[in-house]
Write a structure and sequence with these properties.
With 227 residues, the chain is an alpha+beta fold. It is built from eight helices and six strands, in the order βαβββααααααββα. Helix 1 runs antiparallel to helix 5, helix 3 packs parallel to helix 5 and helix 5 crosses helix 6. This is Glutathione S-transferase N-terminal domain-containing protein.
Length: 227
């Protein structure tokens, strides 16, 4: 399988899922400006929307949208039930509920906080995101969202919250969320995914990550990498 991705973007979520499940995956970088892939293809012919992630299966079929890809991956192997319970188990629906929440209430509005075109409403967007984070911080059923198990929803949440420093959202005002970031960042397979994307922690607590090439460049002014 090939996972079309950008370092530190939302494609990191299914990448983490692959690592956690021990799935063999080939990472293919997509150039945001040219839409050319690192293996020489026109990415728009793979995903006409132009954004990542996309998962190309061994038979050439393509699946898009991160939450759908993560669920497909978890369902593809027996050990995936730990990250997404089987159909008929209410815990599966709980995980799916969090996936939908993260996608609609965190991912999309946080992306808008990166866009200069929306600068006039950034404060209103940030206030709405903060309201959702306040609700979420009181929902943890254990070390992770639904309890002891690290699920596909936790992988997705980790990636979205990793953008917090650049959206002027300080997670320390929600200790459960900041603690969650530290726990996930310490997971061996998550660290493996971060290394594979050449991501390095840059904050004092070691819970936020950005591409090494970006951190080493003259452009490193705390301006975010576009998710």
């Amino acid at each position: 399988m090939k996972l079309y991705m950008n370092a530190a973007a939302c494609s990191l979520s299914p990448h983490i899922v692959c690592r956690e499940l021990g799935l063999d995956i080939e990472l293919v970088e997509v150039d945001r400006k040219t839409h050319r892939t690192s293996d020489g293809r026109d990415y728009l012919a793979i995903n006409g929307n132009g954004y990542v992630p996309a998962l190309m299966l061994d038979d050439g079929k393509v699946l898009t949208e991160g939450p759908a890809i993560a669920q497909f991956l978890a369902d593809s192997v027996p050990q995936g039930a730990a990250m997404l319970p089987e159909v008929g188990n209410l815990r599966r629906n709980e995980v799916q509920s969090y996936l939908n929440f993260i996608s609609a209430e965190l991912h999309k509005p946080m992306v808008l906080l990166f866009e200069p075109a929306y600068a006039s409403v950034h404060e209103r967007i940030r206030a709405q995101v903060s309201k959702r984070l306040s609700w979420l911080s009181g929902r943890f059923a254990g070390p992770y969202l639904t309890g002891e198990a690290f699920t596909v929803a936790d992988a997705y949440l980790f990636v979205c919250l990793n953008w917090s420093p650049w959206t002027e959202i300080n997670l320390k005002q929600w200790p459960p969320l900041h603690g969650f970031m530290a726990r996930v960042a310490a997971r061996p397979k998550v660290r493996e995914a971060l290394r594979a994307e050449d991501l390095e922690a840059f904050d004092a607590d070691g819970v936020y990550f950005a591409p090494n090439a970006y951190l080493a460049s003259s452009d490193w002014t705390r301006v975010p990498v576009q998710p």
